[in-house]
## 1
Amino acid sequence: MLRLSSLLILTVFLGYVSASYEDKRCKCVCPSPATVLNNTVGSDRKLYIGNVPPNMCNCDGLILPRVGDLVKGREQEFCPRCECKYENRNTTIIKVVVIIVLWVIMLLVAYMGFLICLDPLINKRAKASYQEHTNEDDESTLGGPSQPISSRGNVLNRVTHQQDKWKRQVREQRRNIYDRHTMLN
Amino acid sequence: MERFPLKTSKMATTYQSVYKKGTGSSNGYSGQGGDDDMVSIKAGPHRAADSSSASTPTSHGTFQLYEHGTRYSDASAHWDAVMFSGMQGEGDDIPGIGQYDDFHTIDWQRDIARDRMRHRYIVKKRQDSIWDLIKGAHDAWSGWVCVLLVGVCTGVVAGVIDIGASWMTDLKFGICPQAFWFNREQCCWSNDEVTVDHDNCSQWLTWPQVFGESRDGAGAYIVSYLFYIVWALIFAALSASLVRMFAPYACGSGIPEIKTILSGFIIRGYLGKWTLIIKVVGLILSVSSGLSLGKEGPMVHIASCLGNILSYLFPKYGRNEAKKREILSAAAAAGVSVAFGAPIGGVLFSLEEVSYYFPLKTLWRSFFCALIAAFILRSINPFGNEHLVLFYVEYNKPWKFFELIPFIALGIIGGCIATIFIKANIYWCRYRKYSKLGQYPVTEVLVVTLITAIIAYPNPYTRMNTSQLIYLLFNQCGISNNDPLCDYPRNYTDVNSIEKAAAGDGVYTAMWLLTLALILKLVMTVFTFGIKVPCGLFIPSLALGAIPGRIVGIGVEQLAYRYPKSWLFSGECSAGDDCITPGLYAMVGAAAVLGGVTRMTVSLVVIMFELTGGVRYIVPLMAAAMASKWVGDALGRQGIYDAHIALNGYPFLDSKDEFQHTSLAADVMQPKRNETLSVITQDSMTVDDVETLLKETEHNGYPVVVSKESQYLVGFVLRRDLNLAIANARRTMDGICGQSIVIFAGPTQSLPPGPPPLPLTRILDLAPITVTDQTPMETVVDMFRKLGLRQTLVTHNGRLLGVITKKDVLRHVKQMDNEDPSSVLFN
C-alpha cells in the first residue's frame, strides 16, 4: 500500500499527467459498419467517443461525421443500431477524494503502527503518572476537570488525557466484542 | 396573590408554575418567595393559556399527573416549580442529570417531559428581549438545520465511499498510470475507437502489463490471479486491523444495533467519531477486497453516526436522548436514501424497519434529510451515470398478466433462499460466539477473504464487483451489451424492437456460471456476514435473488420463443418481438430475496421501483415481496436483523410480536417473595443511610415512599441522579454531612435540629407510572412498548409492592418463549 501510493504520488509530481481527461463525453456503441453492410452476424462492436454538446450526442452528431463514407446511403439502417449516452463527471472531485482516502488510510496505518510499536515503550516510562491519571478520571465523571500534572504543558496534558480516555473506551469495546462476545456477533 | 385569578384551580397552579423557572430555580429549596416570583413573571398570553388549561385540563395531560403535588397545599406551587426546574437540565443544574450510563435504556416519558419544559421556558422567555426571541427562533428551526446538516454530510460521505470503493476495487485488476486516481471506466473515458469486446483500453494497464508481460496468456492470467488475491488480502487485513485497533464497534452492518438504539438503548461510543471514521475507511477497504458484502447497511450506521455527532451542535437534541432519536431516525432514512438513490424508500425504511418512535414531525424531517442527502450525492455524481447507484436500470416494456405466475414463483424461491441464508448465518454466528473461532477475528477475516478470492476469480460473474453483477443481471440485452448473457443471434434487421431469438451458446454457458456464482455467493455470504469488518447484506441478497431471477427470466423467454402458439403466450406474445424482459425477472427475484431476508415489504417495493424509475412494475414487485414474506414467515419466524438482535440479546422489545401469556404484573415484579424492596423514605433517611443503600444494592432506581411502615408511594429516583446529586451537594453546599436528612418531599415546617437537610426534590420523579399487581402482563408489555417506559411501579391497595423494569419484562418474554432469559444484554 505504502510503496504503491508513494510511487504513484511520485509519478504525479513528476508531471506524468499528459493525457487529456475531459469531464464530458458522448459515448456511442455501434456495430462495426462492415456487419451492417454485409449483413453478416457479428458481435464486433465499436465504441465512438467524442466531445459534442448533449443535444448533438446521437448518430447524426457524432458517428456519421466519422464513418459517413463507409455507410453512405445506408444511414437509415446503420444509425438506429447505435446507442448513444451523454456522460459527465468531475475529475477534480475524483482526484481529491481518492487522494484523501489514501492519506487517511496511511495516517491511520501510521498511527496504528505507532500505537503498536512505540506507545508501549513511552507508556512504560510514564507508567506512574498514567496510573494516577486513570484513577482520577474514574472519579471525575462526577464533575471537576482533572488536575494538570505539573511536569507537562497544559495542552499536551489535555491531549494525553483525551487519548487515555479514548484508549480506555476502545479497550472496553474490544472486551465486549472480541473477548466476551456480548455484542455484534 | 389576587393578581393570580386561577389560584383556586389546582391545574392552573401547577401549570402556571411551569413558567417560573429561571427565577427561583437555581437553588431548588430556597424556601420562601415562591409566590412573589410567580407574580412577577406573569405575562399576558400566559394568562390566556391558564384559563384555557383550567377549562380543559386534559390538554396538558402530562402536567395533570403532577397534580398530587397540591397535597401540601402551601408549598404546592413551589414544589412543582422546583421539580420542573430540575428537569430543565440547563446550565446551573447538577452536571450529568438527564444522561444515562452505558447499556441502559432511556426513559422516553421523562426525556420528552424534559424537552417540553425546556420548550415552554423558551417560549415564555421569548417576550423578554430580542436576544431571547432569536434564541427561540433558533430553537424552533434547529431540528431542520440539524437534519439539513446530516443530509449534506451523509451525501458527501456516501460520495467519498462510492468513489473510493470503485477506485480501490479496480486496483485489484490494474492501474491507470497517467492518473492513478481513476478506475478503469474513468481511465478509458476518452479513449476512442476500441472494440468493446476487449474491456481494456491502452491507458489502463493490468498488473501483468505493468510488469512487462502481455495482456493475455497463461502467465498473465496467473499474475492477475495472484495480484487479485494479494490485493484482496491486503484490503481485508487493513480493514480488520483498523477496526480492531481503533473502533471495534465499526464492524458488522450496524442495523440491528441501530434498531436497538432507536428503541431507547444506550451504547456509548457506538455512534462516535472514531466509529464513523473507521467505518467509512473500513467499508471502502472491505468492499474493495471483493468479499461478499455490500455498503448499504453500514451506510445507515454511518448516517446515524453523523446524526449523533451533529446533534451535539444543538443542545436541544444533543442533551436529550429521546429527542436525539428523532434525528437518528431521519439520519437512517438518509443512509438508505444515498445507498439506493431512493429517498422515499429511505424514509419508509426508517419507518418500517429501524425506527421505534416515529411521529409525523420526524417523518417530514426524514423526508427532508433523505432528499438533501440524495441531492448532494447526485451532484457529486460518483458513478458518472447521473444516478445514485451503479445498478440503476430503466425498463419500458409492459409486463404480461401471465407473468405473475413466475413472479410469485420467484417470490417463493426468494423466501426459501432467504430462510436458508438466515438459518445458516445465525447458526454460524452462534458457533462463532460460543466457540474458539471467536478468538481469532482477524485470522477469520483473512481466511474468508482468501477463500473468497481464490474461488471467485475464475468465474467472471463472481470476479466482478457485486454491484456490477447486479447491474448486468438487471439490464436488458441491448446493442451495447456484449456479455455472454446477451449472446442472442439477432440479425438486427428490424431495428425498432429487439426481436425474439433463441439463446446462443453464450447464454447457456453464462447460466451455468451464474448457477455456480449463486452457490458460491450464498455460501460465502453466510460466512461473511458477521466477520469483524464493516459489512452489509443488501447487495449480496440482491445478487442472490437476481441470479435465479435472471435464470427464470431466460427460461420463460425461451419458452415463449419455442412455443409461441401455446395458450399461455398466444394472446399477448404473438407479435414476434421479444415480450419477456429477463432483467425484470432478475429485479423481482432480487426484491424477493431481500424481502425474505429483511422482512421488509413496503419500503422494499418503493426502493426497487425507485431503482427502476417506473411505477409500472409495482404489482410484480409487490407480489414477489408478499410471497417471499409469507414463505419466510412460515419457514422461520424472524428476519435477519431480529435474529441478530435475539442472538446478541439486545434489549429490544419488538412491537411486532404479541404477548400471549396470562401472567400478571405480580408474577414478574421484583422483589420476588421473601425478599424486601429497597425503598427510600421521603424525609427520614440520612445521607449515610442513602449511601449505604446505594452500596448494598445494585438497582438503577429507588421508589420513594412516605415512610417504611405505610409504603405509600411518593415518587421515583434514579440511582445515577442520586449519586450525582449527593456528590454535587457535598461539593457545593455547606454543612452537608453524613447525618444530614435527605428530603425528597413532604411538609417542610418541622425540621429537626441538627445538620442542614439535603433537599433532593429536583431529582425526584413525582409522576412514576404505576400499575396494580393484578394488571395482566399483556397490558404492562404494551405500556412498555407504547410509552417507552424504563420501569413501572406495582402497587396493591395503594401501597407500593414492587418494581417492574424493562429488563424484567424482556426476561419474562424470553422465559415465556422458552429461551434463555439470562442472555439479555443489560446493565
## 2
Amino acid sequence: MHPIRKKRLTIVLFLVVGVSVAVALTTYALRQNINLFYDPSQIAAGEAPVDVRIRAGGMVEEDSVIRDPESLMVEFKVTDFSSSVLVEYTGILPDLFAEGQGVVAMGRLNGQGRFVADQVLAKHDENYMPPEVNEALEKAANKRASESGGQLETSAGY
Amino acid sequence: MWQIFHKLGSPKWFYGIASRLMPWLLWVGVALFIAGVIWGLAFAPPERLQGNSYRIIYIHVPAAFLAQSVYVMMAVAAVVTLVWRMKLADVFVKSVAPIGALLTFLALFTGAVWGKPTWGTWWVWDARLTSMLILMLLYAGAIALGRAIQDEKSSARAVAVLVLVGVVNIPIIQYSVEWWNTLHQPSTFKLTEKPKMASEMWVPLLMAILGLYMLFGWLACLRMQTEVLVREGRTRWVKELIQQGGTR
C-alpha cells in the first residue's frame, strides 16, 4: 500500500477507535440511566429510589394477579425469579398482559415496598410461534410432567 | 480482487456494469420481496400471543435490517473516500444516504404502529428505540452536511468523517437489547443459532429481507448512475452516451 494511504488509514482507524472508546465510556457511566427499568432484585436490594417515578420490569408471577371486582384496580407480583415486587395499577392493561408474561410498569415505589404504577406496558419475547405449535408444546410438557408424577404446569397466557 | 477495486475507480466502468446488473436486481428483488410479504401477510400462521398484529414484522424487520446494513456500507465507502480518495465511494455515500434515512423512518414508524397494540405505547425511550432514532438523525446529518458544502472534495471528506464517527452507533443498536434492560425484545435472528421463530414464519421473512436488499441494490445503482452522469457531464464518454440516446 502507498505510504500516504497507509498513513490516512491509520488516522481513520484512530478516529474510529477513539470515538468508540469515548462512547463506550459515556454509555458505561450512564448505564443506569440507559436501562429502561429496574429488576425486582434491584428494588429488593434497595437500589431503586423511593417515591421517584421509575420503571420496574420483570415477569408477572403465576397466580399473583388479583383483580378488584368493584374497580379497574389490579394487583400483581413482578418477579425475576429471585425476588419479586408487588405492583398495583388502576387502568386498562395491554392485550398481551398475562401471568408469565413480561411487563414494564411505570410508577413510584412507596414506603412499604409496594410499587404504585400509572402505566403498564407489556413486553414480548423474541419467540414467535403459531398457536398449534404452542399447544403441542404445552401438551408435551404436561405429559412429561404427569408421567414424572409432578405438578401440572400451565404455560404462559392461557 | 484489487483489480476490481481499482476498476471501481472508473465511473465509466461502473456505469456499464450497473446497467447490466440492474434488471436482475430489480426483477429478482421485486419477486422475492412481493412473494415474501404476501406469504407473510396472508398465508403465514398467526402468532400464539399477538395474533395477526405480529405480521407487521414482514415490513418492520426488513426495513430495520437494511437501515443498519446500509449505514455499514456507507461507513466502508467513507473509509475508501478518506484513504483512497475514490470518487465513486463518495457517489455511493451521497446516493444511498436518503434511502437509508427512509428505511430508518419506515422501521421506526412500523415499530410504533406495532408497539401500540402489543406493548401499549407508541414510543418509549429505551436503548433500542433511541439508538435507532439517532441513526435516523445521523442519516439526516450526512445528507445535510453533504448538501451544505459546495466543493465536491471537501464535502466528500466531511461527510465521510461524519459517517465514520456515527458507525459506533451500529453495534449499540445491535446489542442494545442485550446490554441494557429494554422494552424491545432481543433479536429473533442470530447468526450462530436457529431462529427463534417457526419456520413457516421466518422463511417468508428471510425472503422479504433478501428481496429488499436487491431492491436497495437496484435503487442505489440507479441513483449512483444519475449522480455519475451529473458529475462527469463534461467527459467524452458521457457525451457519447447521450448522443447514442442513452442506450448502452
